[in-house]
Amino acid sequence: MLTAAQVLAQNNFGDTRTGGLAGPMGLFLILVLGTATVLLIRNMNARLRRLPDRFPSQGPSPDAMKSERVVVDPTDRSTSP
């Protein structure tokens, strides 16, 4: 039976393991991630090119809303039920 010291003393590094897949699997993952990144960049560039140069305004700008003052009459009860 192996003791803890004997298990820790064993050399499980380097070329002592057979059938190692770390190198080829790492290369495969790097290639997949690189391909996915290139495709995502191309997709986003195509979407950005299709956007209009300017968007139509959808309401008053925040600066215009700050300059306008709305006076509310506290005695007006026409909106309450």
Automatic annotation (TrEMBL):
Superkingdom field: Bacteria
Key words of the record: Membrane, Transmembrane, Transmembrane helix
Record field: transmembrane: 20-41
Annotated region described as Disordered, given as residue ranges: 51-81
Segments of skewed composition (Basic and acidic residues): 65-81
Protein name: Uncharacterized protein
